[in-house]
Amino acid sequence: MAVRANPNLLEELKHYGADDVTKCYHCGNCSATCPLSKEPFIFPRKSMRYLQMGLGDKLKGNLEPWLCYYCGECSDECPREAEPGETMMSMRRWLTAKYDITGISKLFYESWVAEAGAIMLVALLTGIGFYWFGMTKGGGDFGIYAGPNAFLPAHTEGNFFGLGWNVHTFDWIMGAVLGGLLVTNCLRMWWFTTGSRKDMKVPLGTYIKHAFLLPWHFITQKRYAECDKKKPWIIHLILMLSYLTLLILIMLFLHHMHAPETHWVHIFGYASTIGLLGTAAYALNGRLNKTETHYKHSHESDLIFLFLLLYVGTTGILQHFAYRFLGNEILANFMYIIHMMGVVPMLVLEVPFSKWAHLAYRPYAMYLAAVQADVIAEREGTKVPALAPQKQMTA
Length: 395
Ligand code: SF4
Ligand code: SF4
Fold this sequence. Notes:
Blueprint: H1 9-14, H2 29-33, H3 45-53, H4 56-60, H5 64-67, H6 73-77, H7 84-99, H8 104-110, H9 112-136, H10 168-195, H11 204-209, H12 213-220, H13 231-257, H14 264-289, H15 300-324, H16 329-353, H17 358-380
């Protein structure tokens, strides 16, 4: 089949953060240096080549950008300062836009004004919507924060047009919408990288055999730990686990989080809020002051993501303190709405369409890479274990 080259690909990738790709003269230093580059996936040089040659379809079917955790070692070693680490990051953004069926991701990555504008619009609608919901559900007492008559009841059912909804219903609706979008996009990712490839016929048993890798890589981010520098992995792990803990607390224990008496879930809430705020502040400082190689270049979406995290973490803890330590239920309800004005845009815009999407795509790529490695080893009659360490000088 003829391979089509897209002469505008390099220009297109610039919107996603790629910069000095033409400087690369293919010495292969980066692939030899990369601690995560292992047979049968040797990167990042090959991906740099695809980009230089305008091979958009090859790039779209490429899992390798997701196997990179941006430790920055390749960029440090590149004799041409072609920034292969940042280029891999820009490819992940570009791929996120390609997987997204709605086109929203492309819009956000190509225009930070559109992303910031959409966040502000959704925040405004959320504020109005939650206030309206509080006022119409049957009591609308802004002076009551928790319990059956609360302005925004977390547990006891409200009387929302006779439907018996409470504020928790919104979490589950958002969860369902998010899940639907991510599953659709993951299916597209599978099709581009595996399903549409004639040389990649995967037996069902191989998919099942590696299924455990999905939760394993999601929770541990273990592959990141294989980088020579351990600090970025620890920071990333704390951020991810804090976020996951807060998500579980909100989805399953919201009424205990809002309870006036002390409950064991509060300990997890405090710990994960500290983890979230601490790591987000660390990353923001790193990006603003360019403290490490992987913080040297910042796309606008990186900064929007961190500002949103800090906003959500700070307003969440202020809402909690207003109720539990100040006993000011009016202030707590006010802060609740302010907090949700960050939570909703973060969940409905950032998770499926922007930086947070890598939470799903990266472990999924690890899984697909293990599946593909099995198929390649079987086809070539080799015994190469999936993603076993085998560095090469060139690739
Ligand atoms: S180190 Fe990698 S990115 Fe840099 S010139 Fe060599 S092949 Fe290109
Ligand atoms: S940034 Fe690190 S993990 Fe990514 S390609 Fe470069 S050396 Fe490998």
